[in-house]
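User: Please predict structures.

Assistant: First:
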Amino acid sequence: MTEKAETAKKPAEKSAGHPQTSFREYVESLLVTVVLALFAQAFVVQAFKIPSASMEPTLLVGDHVLVNKFIFGGRGHWYDHILPYRQIRRGDVIIFPFPFDDHAFYVKRAIGLPGDHLKIVDQKVYINGKALDEPYAAHNPMAVYDPFMDDFPPTSPEAVSGQMRPEWSSQILNYVQNGELIIPAGKYFAMGDNRDDSLDSRYWGFVDRDAIVGHPVMIYWSVQSTEDEYDNPSFGAWLKDTFDVLIHLPSRTRGSRMFHLVR
């Protein structure tokens, strides 16, 4: 038998160009994709939308942001130094669940850190006796004067504002010494950049370290909206607002804000 004949008897090899994919492989790939997406949302990045004006002009109502949930992950473990964790710094924009009621997520700026002595005098924030440089803070010259908002903390029961959460008003004086609020370990004092229109730590207290979800890093989409569109929780109102956004998407999209970093 010739060498040519022997070669002809060998079974044909399968083509490596486009192997057929079974239904099982499709399902496995889909499951892996879903698991990775859920993992990323739980531990790495998550999308949030801004429903209020409390962080203007840094963040506007209708801004959609990506939140880095990994950056503040360090808890003092031995391996923290080899991972890209870092501590929360003064001035960081943070996101966390509101400590009361329905636990909606809030976006504020970390102003006071654990151990700080904080006070506000004539709208100026002082940390450990030194005036804080806040280029991000905005004040409305037309806002009605509010002694509690402009000068903080209260130093007597008579000075405690009726707008405070009762849980906070009943204990705030325990943290006041010599006219300053002393921030305990594991707590942060958060404020909105829109100082005259922000429901923040002045009114409901400290933010627990473990409650801080992460740091908004980028505006990936922005659409002209009002707070009223987020205040009505009914499904019908949500459906109407969503349909209106889709119909007027080109005209309501704020293209100049897209892909801006949050600072």
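Second:
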Amino acid sequence: MQTNQKQHEINEYAAKVIRHKARHLVGTAGYTESDRDDLEQEMMLDVITRTPKFDANKGTHKTFVARIIERKISKLIRHRTSEMRDYRREACSLNERVDDGDGSTVERGDLLSQEDADFQCGRRNRTGAEEMEFLQDMEATLSALPAHLRRLCEYLKTGTISDAAREMGVPRTTLNDHVKKLRAIFEDAGLRDYL
């Protein structure tokens, strides 16, 4: 009976602290009022799953619960503001209705090109303009190469150094030296990021 009473007191204390912390978390890291119930639930779940690890020799129940909640809040904010999920990158919703220029409205996502969508989702690391610049720079660098290095580049587009060595009839060690030369040439041409 005593254990149940103590557990009830801990849960009441945790619920009170969690409600308070969730209220203060709204408006931070992009959390809104509609997130409050979810935040409270996540914090309470963390408290419940960690309570069996309480050690009375290290502190009080209230301190233990408060630390669990503080750490959970830190994790929630860190998760929410990590680069790939950063709420500040979301300038608008793709479901938002906008004027299409012809007097009607469409969802913003319908106006996004596949290229832009791929770039925003991380499936491409360069925009179309950057890709075009890269191709032009690469073409200029390749055209300035001696024929044997240009041929090696063609083989390396789809194969390994071993494949290129077989096709060209050259020892792999020789091609390794050629690859080092190619790296230096590409770096000198400002194409280091593409290596």
